[in-house]
Design goal:
The protein has 348 residues and is of the alpha/beta class. The chain has three domains: 1-57; 80-163 and 312-348, no CATH class; 173-303, 3-Layer(aba) Sandwich (Rossmann fold), CATH 3.40.50.620. The chain has helices at 2-22, 28-50, 52-57, 59-98, 106-124, 132-162, 188-203, 223-233, 250-264, 279-291, 305-322, 324-347; strands spanning 173-177, 181-182, 185-186, 208-212, 241-244, 273-278, 297-301. A five-stranded parallel sheet has the order 5-4-1-6-7, sandwiched between helices. The protein has a two-stranded antiparallel sheet with strand order 2-3. The longest helix is centred in the N-terminal third of the chain and has 40 residues, at 59-98.
Length: 348
């Protein structure tokens, strides 16, 4: 088994490197990283059990296993003891500062689910039996594990795409995505996106800024116009700006901006671009750009933690909605597997 786990770790690592080189705008980069860590941990544990003397004599391998076990222990402790209060407190702060709205309740709702699942259900259900409530609880555990892995992959992929070593990437365009106005001025959230776009623009001489955002029914001017005015006040030359003021969704932001870039280059598709948006929003924006066959990289602006937690969950929910057919197939397959396992156990 030791050799098998080592081979699986190597193959997973090579596949991860391949995806990173070709196009890292995919949830696969996060999932493969988790899977590689899992296989590597299995390899170390298998090696320790097979040859304890050899394992104890090699300090580096011993340290690597300790790191894996500490990481696993941290996850097991963080899940019930850290994640639940973080989402609970973050949800309460968000409601206090932003108001009680449906979109602001996700983190509080998740914290409630975690409390019910981790604390209340084990107190009222004997999960060791084969009673219907216990079977349902175990089934929900499998489904929950799927969502934990998938959400973790989404989050890790977002972090990877937020990371850039070089400042000058030779970009031709930086697309800044809109996020609402206060009168004719950008909200603090939108201002942070513009500031990030300006930062990238100044690190890439010769690039142009594209401000993407239409005019909402309750807005006096288009988001693109307000963003451009803000950028001018920050010292950006208006000649280096293009305005896309017809979009109302992220999908339209990217599609219309792509058409604007193609028009500006005379139909030449060989331009390099980046998307600047909030950090929690970046992964879904890049996935949308990938579906539209727009090659780009992404830069994320920081937001306050209490807001980012809830907003990130909204982004994941939107991604789940965008890929709901694939997710339903996965969940249906897991359900069938659980049923088959239950049937096989009853026949033994």
């Amino acid at each position: 088994m030791t050799v098998i786990f080592l081979v699986l770790f190597i193959l997973t690592s090579l596949l991860w490197i391949f995806v990173m080189i070709t196009d890292r705008r995919t949830i696969s980069v996060g999932f493969l990283l988790l899977l590689g860590a899992f296989f590597f941990g299995c390899f170390l544990i298998s090696e320790a059990l097979a040859d304890p003397a050899f394992f104890s004599e090699h300090f580096v391998i011993h340290i690597l296993l300790d790191i894996e076990l500490l990481f696993l222990a941290a996850l097991l402790i963080a899940y019930p003891m850290v994640l639940t209060p973080v989402f609970l407190i973050g949800g309460l702060i968000l409601m206090k500062r932003e108001g009680i709205k449906g979109r602001n309740l996700l983190s509080l709702f998740l914290a409630t689910l975690l409390i019910v699942y981790d604390i209340i259900c084990p107190l009222i259900i004997d999960v060791r039996t084969d009673s219907p409530p216990a079977l349902i609880y175990r089934y929900m555990t499998i489904i929950s594990l799927y969502f934990v892995i998938h959400l973790s992959s989404f989050w890790i992929s977002d972090l990877i795409n937020l990371t850039h070593i070089r400042k000058d990437r030779g970009l031709d365009y930086i697309v800044v995505l809109g996020a609402g106005l206060r009168g004719t001025k950008p909200t603090p959230l939108l201002a942070s996106r513009i500031d990030k776009g300006i930062e990238v623009y100044r690190n890439n001489p010769g690039a142009k800024l594209i401000f993407s955002g239409g005019q909402g029914v309750d807005e006096e001017i288009s988001e693109a116009r307000a963003m451009a005015d803000y950028a001018v006040s920050r010292g950006v030359d208006s000649k280096d700006m293009l305005l896309e003021d017809g979009s109302t969704t992220t999908e339209e932001n990217i599609r219309f901006s792509k058409a604007l870039m193609e028009k500006d280059t005379g139909g030449t598709p060989s331009f390099s671009c980046a998307i600047a948006t909030s950090s929690y929003h970046l992964m879904r924006a890049l996935l949308i750009a990938r579906r539209q066959r727009l090659r780009c990289i992404g830069y994320g602006a920081r937001t306050r933690l209490y807001f980012s937690l809830n907003a990130f969950l909204r982004e994941y929910a939107a991604y789940f909605r965008d890929t709901r057919k694939k997710r339903i197939i996965h969940l249906a397959a897991l359900t069938v597997i659980c049923i088959l396992i239950r049937i096989s156990r009853s026949l033994i």
